[in-house]
Give the backbone structure.
Amino acid sequence: MEVLQWAGIPTVLFLAPPSPEQLQSFESFAAFGVAGCSRSMSPNEMEVELKSVLRQLRDSGAEIVHYKTCSTFDSSPEIGSIGKAIEIGRELFGNGVVPIVIGAPNLGRYQVFGNLFARSGLDTAPYRLDRHPTMMQHPITPMDEADLRYHLAKQTKLRIGLYDILRLQKVVPASGFNLIDAADCDAMLFDVLLPEHLLKIGEILNCVAKQRTPSYMVGSSGIEYALTQFWETASQLEPTSVAVRPTFGAVEQIVVVTGSCSPVNDRQISWAEQHGFETLALNSARLIDVNTSQSEIRFMVESALGRLNLGANLILHTSRGPNDPRIALAKESMRAMGLSELEIRLQSGRLLGPKLGQILFGILSEKWFSRVGIAGGDTSGHIARELAITALEAIAPVAPGSPLCRAHSKNALHGVEVFFKGGQVGKDDVWGTMLRGTNIEHAASLS
């Protein structure tokens, strides 16, 4: 949504497949998406839910249907299988070769000879994914393989090809479609190291889209970066400039809920504490325990409001990094519920995310905020649903991959500005940016 929006393609993101009436209410938009939770589903669950959503997208009249993955490709054979998503797409869209683009230099994500590298935050050197400080110990889908061909081979029997960086540098892009379609594989990974590689890939993807409509593609926002770069070069879009992208002003107070275990998220909380924010530790084990959940939610809402009513900027968090003892306590609570290790990985976001949403909704029901922050890839979708958000519209960039959005809802939260971010997204001062804004003329200073 962010990449398309700033390229001049108005885009809206729905929280569930939209009805024809909903689409008509956003008729000025040229692209739309559906935010789902398939990254935390089993293959059997994906078969049911994803097939239904993709069928609706296929029949929407769009030329391109993109199954959006995380740019760190976190997935496994048991949970969030990207291989399964490729299989479902090929079944619904035909048996052509599915392009897969994961690299996105703007996000600090690079693929070279099939191996994925990622920065830990925006200011570190890139790590090979199986050595990445967050991804190698991700609580749901830890990454132990950086070569995405081998990683996908654990998830699907489809043949995965590679359009490597040397081949990409030599190829005449206009011939790219034939090279893909004639390839002896079912899906094709594209190496990406530099922004100019995305331009070549964008022309290839555009050729694919013109030859097969609708076309099914898989990957990160590298798909949109590639296509929009090519469309601008081919004069299909007006050239855009970072200088004219919208800014946003300061607000007097914000509240943030984070469900991330990332060390980047921990650094961001630490920065906020050092610059006047208050923090409140959430007890995940009590929140997911059916015997204590509701009383704990009420207690946390009251505790938060006590601080917020005194003017604090507040961050409520479930973890301060991957070694926070609350993670082990939450897992122990789930084991006591009779869940297996696999079920814990499948269910943890579903058990905890709605509780975080209920806490935030309880706060917002008592005290109005014009801007709120939500962090955590596996929990944020559940939080949004508890807030009864129906759609999101990007209004200004904050951090690559996480724009400031305006929420559409049928309740009192309609129009609230919401900043959703993954645990690894953003610089250390991201919550300060959310408070003071990016409009320099009206920026608030933090002591």
In short: The two ends are 34 Å apart (CA to CA). Confidence is low (pLDDT under 50) at residues 442-447. The first strand starts at residue 11 and ends at 14. The chain has two domains: 2-244, 255-442.
